[in-house]
Amino acid sequence: MAENKVEETASSPAADARAERKAAKLAKQIKAFAGAHGGAEGQLAYIGQMGTRIVLVGEDGAWGDLVAPNNAVAVSAAEKSGITLHESFDGDFAAKVRTGPYEWSRMAGIQVGGPSNA
């Protein structure tokens, strides 16, 4: 016999509570990043079924990212953290990113003949 299963919709109270908790957790992580790097700005990028990527760039040029389950949670987390969001990752915003030897070696490692990533 088939088991009857009630699926929660995106508007159910349980789903809303989970989304709110996830947004609060992400906001806490964003605030920690901003605090460690003299402030931060961000940009949201849809990455398909995986959700929305929150790209963070600190005032010191450090960068990182987080993944939210959907765009609504990402927007909520950014609003709760108080960071400025950019529409795209270009111009002055992209120019703030500072890459170091690690990033350069990783980029070179994917090229034919570059150092291995192992």
Could you please describe the fold and organization of this structure?
About 40% of the residues lie in helices and about 20% in strands. It is α+β, with helices and mostly antiparallel strands and about 120 residues long. It has one domain. Mean pLDDT is about 85; it is low at about 1-10. α1 packs across α2. The protein starts with 12 loop residues before the first helix and ends in a 9-residue tail after the last helix. It has helices at about 15-35, 70-80, 90-95, 100-110; strands at about 40-45, 50-60, 65-70, 85. It is globular and about 45 Å long. Strands 3-2-1-4 form a 4-stranded mixed β-sheet. It has 4 helices and 4 strands.
Which structural traits does this protein have?
118 residues, disordered N terminus
What structural category arises from helix and sheet content? Answer: alpha+beta
What sequence of helices (H) and strands (E) makes up the elements? HEEEHEHH
Name the overall outline: globular
Helicity range of the residues?
40-55%
What is the strand content? 15-25%
Number of helices: 4
- Low-pLDDT ranges: 1-9
- Gyration radius (Cα, Å) is 18 Å
Largest sheet: 4 strands, mixed
Order of the strands making up the biggest sheet? 3-2-1-4
Mean pLDDT: 85
User: Span between N and C termini?
Assistant: 50 Å
Question: What is the β-strand count?
Answer: 4
Number of domains: 1
